[in-house]
Amino acid sequence: MSSMEKSYNLHDQTLRFVDREDEMDFLYEEFASPRAEMSCGHAVTPMSLTNWCRRLLEEGKSKFVCGQPNCNKEWPYVEVRKMALLTPEEREYFESTMAKNAAREYFNSKTCPGCKFSVRRKNESNLSVRCQICTERKGKAYEFCWQCLKEWKGPQPRSDRCDNDGCINEPLKALKTCPEIVFESIKDVRGCPSIRACPTCGSLLEHTSKKCKNLVCPRCRVEFCFVCLKLTFQCLRTSRHYIPCSDGVAPRQTSIPVWHQNT
């Protein structure tokens, strides 16, 4: 166990310890801590819980929900703070990020570079956003880039960048330039990027375990194969967890899927 790895104290009578697998260890890191039970009934270690909740924050969430399929139980922050054994530094990060994400979640807007008023984006797959105030003031359509926050240049609709200098889609850049991953338990898999966009919701995920090729997306909670980019149940129709995919390694992604939630 790493000296930096957090672990439960078996003498802590406020915890309910269980003899089960760590159900939040989606990257199969196999933490050494005893397992304790969350209010939803699933077993965790402080490290796996911290990693899962940090991932939710990185994906823009302001609330903590169990990552197991068919479990929509929301954990209060006080429970997460206790069960994850958050350090003072982690608590500061969690609480400040929760506040920022909550504000962004309820006020998903950006400042128009023309009139400086807040504008909401209706189409998440198009970077070009029309400001109605500027359009009325100028007597012609005024659109700006959601990414670089400059007046729009170039053709549209576009989801990667506009023609302004310095307009860079950082997620696409990461997909294009990330190093390759070498799976320790799967032979003959070459050329697989270490970062993929979830084929369901588009969240960028980095695979670091090097053991199993399947991964559960923290945002949409859908499991997919990091190698062929098929959903796990589809991949397993012609393959297995620890053997190469029948369709080989999917090429680097050049676009990011948009999550169409049924809300």
From TrEMBL:
InterPro entries in alphabetical order: TRIAD_supradom
Cite a single GO MF annotation.
zinc ion binding
Spans traversing the lipid bilayer: none
Determine if Zinc is one of this entry's keywords: yes
Q: Which UniProt keywords apply?
A: Metal-binding, Repeat, Transferase, Ubl conjugation pathway, Zinc, Zinc-finger
Residues covered by the RING-type domain = 20-249
The protein's name? Probable E3 ubiquitin-protein ligase ARI8
